[in-house]
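Review form for a predicted model. The reviewer records the input and the model, then writes brief findings.
Reviewer: anonymous (R2)
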Amino acid sequence: MTEAYIVDAIRTPIGKKKGGLSEAHPADLGAHVIKAIVERTGVDPSSVDDVIFGCVDAIGGQAGNIARTAWLAAGYPEAVPGVTVDRQCGSSQQAIHFGAQAILSGTADLIIAGGVQNMTRIPISAAMIVGQQYGFDTPTSGSKGWEERYGDQEVSQFRGAELIADKWDLSREDLERWALQSHERAKAAIGEGRFEREIVPFGDVTTDEGPRETSLEKMASLDVLVEGGRLTAAVASQISDGASALLLASDEAVKEHGLTPRARIHHISARGDDPIFMLSAPIPATKYALEKTGLTIDDIDLIEINEAFAPVVLAWIKEIGADPAKVNVNGGAIALGHPLGATGTKLMATLVNELDRIEGRYGLQVICEGGGTANVTIIERV
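Model under review:
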């Protein structure tokens, strides 16, 4: 049976809003990680079958198929195609899935999967703001089918996170303790050099800019996002800029190009849940993945679940029964940032490297996504 391997995975440092990466053109951010993965693995760029990149709000410098633009901006052969994927926050994780599926089907041997997002220059939901000039107030308003099914109620990540906190009885203090831990773990990881193998500096930016000095007292002083709610900015992911990429290879490509794989794709899937809750899908998606593989959560050595909001992670831990000590051990998006389209391969770079560091076997990654879906990837270190 054909296998799909991760040969290597890298990322830029994650820049904070208006930080060190904010002036970079998205194509140049993408080109930077593409060149880095090609140079690090030594693969012949003309042998790459496709470039699959995740990106959200594909307008301006992120429009026009950023996967293709970034490849060409890197100076590589025009014969190699590219395609851009939008599965919201899980876009580049879906890029991994599409690349792995191409290899597993035997229709490709070498795929570069990655993602890019400059949220400073192109703010979140910028595509929707542009759409308003054409008469669309939201993605769903005006759809008869949607309104017959869900009415005209608010559909947003903020409401979804509040609904999750309420349903799983998560207090503001619970959320803030997780957020503080995210910062503490991230700062410890940076201090210990855990990210050095996965980060490729971009200009003068050599390390993640997101982690900050905070405390439970500081968090408690912040205003809630909505009256009567539990969420504050302290328990949400940060607006960020960055890019990430990895090289996927078949058995045949590994032999032909003399590559040394670091991990094997063990499982890929995606599932959906209530789009009003929006961010709860990691729970059924993880249950589905474990059932399909015959693994238990205790078989998993490390877990990366995107910290879109703290309630997402804490509700998932409650439902899945995961050991919190295995979850986001180097901090998450609350501290390190969430450059939308780049987050999937960013987290995978961290997961691959941390599995190596602890000599673990299985790693699981799951990301909640707009529309109420979630991708799950399980990898096995080789």
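Findings: DSSP finds 13 helices and ten strands in the chain.
Further findings: The mean pLDDT is 97.
Recommendation: see findings above.
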